[in-house]
From TrEMBL:
This is DUF1697 domain-containing protein. It holds the Pfam family DUF1697. Coiled coil: none annotated. InterPro entries: DUF1697.
């Protein structure tokens, strides 16, 4: 039985770097044997069906195929539709009351140990706030991600060392949930 997934590619099509056209990404996913393929925006969001249930293996195969096709490495995180819905449902912030640019989810390739965050003085960044979730970090940034000092602090190498992370605004989070519904 096939399952719907979203592939979240990190750092593509930003300022002309690591260019991956979405039609070619859809082709790559098809060549990997996936079906019901669709992309969202130009920032590396693809939805597909697969019989494989190993998200890490799906991500590794996509990373390899992208490297072979385009000649550069791209980190990928693959998550199932039910996982994406659970992340959206578990949001600790009032998503319905906020603009999409104010709320973000950073998806992680694995769980982040909460001890990594003990040295971060969250009070110093108010009204910005974050919460650790299941293989994700929720970020409330009222002035947007680009102006967020908390987002910059959360991205420091000592906090993210050894993790693959990629961030999506709430509009994209909601759209991927919609696209991965069975």
């Amino acid at each position: 039985m096939t399952k719907k997934y979203a592939a979240l590619l990190r750092g593509i099509n930003v300022s002309g770097h690591k260019r991956v056209p979405m039609p070619e990404l859809r082709t790559v996913l098809g060549e990997l044997g996936h079906t019901d393929i669709a992309t969202h925006l130009q920032s590396g969001n693809a939805v597909f069906r697969s019989e494989d249930e190993d998200e890490s293996a799906l991500a590794a195969a996509l990373e390899q195929a992208i490297h072979e096709r385009f000649g550069f490495s791209v980190d990928c995180i693959v998550r199932s539709g039910p996982y994406l819905a659970a992340v959206a449902d578990g949001c600790p912030f009032p998503a319905a009351e906020l603009e999409g640019k104010q709320l973000h989810v950073t998806y992680l390739d694995r769980a982040m140990d909460a001890e990594r965050l003990t040295g971060l003085d969250a009070q110093a960044y108010l009204p910005e706030a974050f919460e650790l979730g299941d293989r994700c970090v929720y970020l409330y940034a009222p002035d947007g991600l680009g102006r967020s000092k908390l987002a910059a602090a959360l991205a420091r190498p000592q906090l993210t060392k050894g993790l693959t992370a990629t961030t999506r605004n709430w509009n994209t989070v909601a759209k991927l949930v919609e696209m991965t519904r069975v």
